[in-house]
Design goal:
This protein is mainly β and 161 residues long. The chain has two domains: 103 residues, Immunoglobulins (Immunoglobulin-like, Sandwich); 30 residues, no CATH class. It is built from no helices and eight strands. The strands form two sheets. It has a four-stranded mixed sheet, with no helix packed on it. A four-stranded mixed sheet has the order 2-8-7-4, with no helix packed on it. The N and C termini lie far apart (63 Å).
Length: 161
């Protein structure tokens, strides 16, 4: 008799952002604002895991872990990006995100409470682009080799009416 083997799901580090701004600043220098946090683009049809690593905020307190997670996504109309589930793995939040409107950059506001009482909140941006390509429309502008020309959102540029 054979049975289906259970699978271990490990989040992909390809979609991981790490909390920035916790690097010591030498005396006499000015601190600069950390870079905007952003995940790589997703297609509206994708349902993928996205990670937010807060370990720099917990450095020196390795026993402190994530206790609570709150997620707000903007914009949030019908058909926009949705949160399927969230989980914590030590100092990493794992969010499963689905859907979204092509050409929209979503702000995913993550608020985290730790077992030691720390509170960390950041906005992480997630652009949604048409990454799956179908046949371009007959009116699509094309290059000499027949490749459709697209705009920054991945939509074919059309000519005529």
């Amino acid at each position: 008799m054979s049975t289906v083997a259970p699978q271990v799901v490990r989040p992909s580090s390809a979609r991981r952002v790490v909390l920035d701004g916790f690097v010591p600043v030498p005396s006499g220098s000015l601190a600069t604002a950390p870079a905007t946090l952003a995940w790589p683009a997703k297609d509206p049809g994708d349902v993928l895991d996205y990670e937010f690593d807060i370990s720099p905020a917990l450095a020196g307190n390795e026993k402190d872990t994530i206790a609570t997670i709150s997620v707000t996504i903007q914009p949030s109309a019908i058909g926009d990006l949705t949160l399927n589930s969230s989980a914590a793995d030590g100092s990493v939040v794992v969010l499963w995100l689905a859907g979204g409107q092509v050409g929209t950059v979503y702000s995913v506001q993550v608020s985290i409470g730790t077992t030691a009482g720390r509170t960390i909140g950041r906005a992480i941006y997630l652009p949604v682009l048409a990454l799956v390509s179908g046949a371009p429309p007959a009116s699509a502008l094309t290059t000499a080799d027949g490749t459709a020309v697209s705009d920054q959102s991945g939509n074919a540029i059309t000519v005529g009416g």
